[in-house]
Amino acid sequence: MIRLENVSKYYKNLCVLKDINVNIEKGNIISLIGPSGCGKSTFLKCINGLTSVTEGKIYIDDLEITAKGVDLNKIRSEVGIVFQQFNLFPHLTVRENINLAPVKVKKMPKNDVEMQTMYLLEKVGVLDKIDKYPDQLSGGQAQRVAIARSLAMQPKIMLFDEPTSALDPQMTLEVLDTIKDLAKEGMTMVVVTHEMGFAKEIADKVIFLSRGKIIEEGEPSKIFDNPEKKITEDFINSVLKH
Amino acid sequence: MTHWADVINNLGFLMKGLLITLELAFIAILGSLMLGTFLGITRYLRLPFFSLISASYIEFARSIPLILFIVFIHFGFLPYFFPGTESSFFLSSCIALIIFTSAYVAEIIRGGLNSIEKGHIDAARSLGLSRIQRLKHIILPLAFQRMMPALVSQFIALIKDTSLASTIGLIELTRAGEIIYERTYHEFEILIFIAFVYFIICFSLSRLSKVLETKPYAKLQSM
Fold this sequence. Notes:
The complex is a heterodimer of chains A (242) and B (223). Chain A is built from nine helices and ten strands. Chain A has 242 residues and is of the alpha/beta class. In chain A, the strands form two sheets. Chain A has a six-stranded mixed β-sheet, with helices on both faces. The mean pLDDT of chain A is 91. The N and C termini of chain B lie far apart (50 Å). Chain B has ten helices and no strands. Chain B is mostly helical. The interface between A and B is medium-sized, with 33 and 22 residues.
């Protein structure tokens, strides 16, 4: 479903991603781990066209999104992304945050959008906050609204960029449960996370990234319990200690 | 011996001047807001050709004293390009104020637009909103809230700057006062009164901006 072929990304002379080859099948859940600054966020931003690649090709459903003249806005609307800092629009209510893109981008009828918004908020468990502003929500609620906002575009794939790093443990659980529900429904996902237990539980495949390169990839049990490379082992030990 | 009677006896005349001041300020605020927004957005979007034009215009308008604009437009520009028609004091002052203030407004708008967190813009992009949609629904509304205080203080400056139109002979508040004390030689009371009127207008505007500035988004819905 999504294929990255020899993808590299440079900022001026700084190499952020180096020769990445990944194949994500429909319904796959990929967990991306690695030290900060290793290129995880850039990896996600390349997939939904928020940032361009320097070399290589990315395909979504056999459409090359790195080709010239591709309608990036359309691609972005098919790839949902959830950010560490939620990034809800502070001047819009929860309802308006979620309605905006389906109405303006997808041109869906207003009634359908309203129904869908209610359904999604119910699903992530914050329907009672529908007319609140983002600054009236807790972090966990805000992140679940952000997830609902992405889902409202009915994306083919969801990307999560450290969705729980800005949350305290209780709220982390709320958000992780929401993501697990999505996993059960068969949503294709790429999750950047430091929650190793979570990654182990839901991921089909774990990719360990360091300094822009894929060091190791495989099933969670292999990466977490029997890593082949010393650097992977050191990273996992350092994270588990905390 | 005070001469407050000068103020009272000429109140009608002074109020006519005030009306001109307010009209001039109002039109110049609207004009500079429109022109400034246009210039600010062109610079923010970095449109190749227009951006350069805007930047040059802004640098030019900010580097020349306002009084020169007023005098030049009234006695130089308008008579030169539109000979035969008599220059109107009001029109000249208005054009000069708009040229001058729009440059500052443009910079405020550009700064406000640039101050929007990248996260919000990324979120809007990731939802598939086009550049224009992002500007209209996300960036401009957010930026406008932040620009309010700076815009208001720029417009307060503009209101006071209208007094410079007195130099070419427009009978606004300041010139109206001058005309009175040039006849009576009692400057003190008239000047105090005029200062007081400017103060009331500008201070009220400044209070209004404080109220808007401290309103969080959640509270806006109950307004």
